[in-house]
Amino acid sequence: MPPRCALCGDTGFADFDLCAGCLDDLPRNLRCCYRCGEPFESEIALPSLCGRCLKRSPQFDETYAPYLYRYQMPYLIGQLKFGRDYKNARLLALLLGEHIAADAELPELLLPMPLHPHRYRERGFNQSIEIARHLARRFELPLDLYSVVRSRDTLHQTGLPAKQRRKNMRGAFRLQKSLKADHVAIVDDVMTTGATASALAGVLKQAGVGRVDVWVCARA
Q: Which residues fall within 8 angstroms of residue 49, CB to CB, at 6 or more apart?
């Protein structure tokens, strides 16, 4: 079927389920910290680190977050995450993939952010896996779904301050299968403070991974 805009219903642009106007209106994350993707409020020489990363560096090395989590992005991600609108996984992967293709050094494998089994049963699927499947096909990269598990059903991070988020994620992930890669990219839908991604990256680094990037569709 020809693409249709997921926001206004008009004819899609190129291969996107967005029209050209709605695509142009998406909030781009153009000036941000290269490590955590946090947007800068003013013009700054790039690449740069934000104050938070200078004070306490996360376990991952670089973040690729092409859009801000505002305006239309919460709707597009929410329709996938809570509305099971699977076509948005393809759209979000296309949007993220364009940014990756232009700016990123490709890793050896992709690792979607794991869900705890209880959360997985509750939701019925993992939106990060759905997005990562499309990215893996596009970049011809292996997709690792089994090496790391979420061993603790943590509290929802929404509303928690950064310090509490880090505490909440301690011991949340466990390696259950050896990783044979030096460069790994974690795939997720949204990053807020980066506490979850940092906890997972820490487990990967302890397992011998040399570099961990984070690929997310949007940055809060």
A: 33, 34, 35
What pLDDT score was predicted for residue 157?
47
Dmax over Cα atoms in the chain, in whole Å?
50
Residue 156, SS3?
Answer: coil
**DSSP secondary structure string for all residues of 65-79:** --EESSTTHHHHHHH
- For 49-63, b/e burial (b = at least 16 CB within 10 A) is ebebbeeeebbbbbb
Taking the CA atoms of the chain, what radius of gyration do you get in angstroms? 17
Output phi, psi for 218, to 5 deg: -150, 150
- Two tokens, residue 155: 């509290």
C-alpha distances out from residue 220 to 51, 175, 210, Å: 16, 28, 27
Amino acid at 163: K
Q: Does the structure show a pLDDT above 70 at 135?
A: yes
CB 124 within 8 A of CB 84: yes
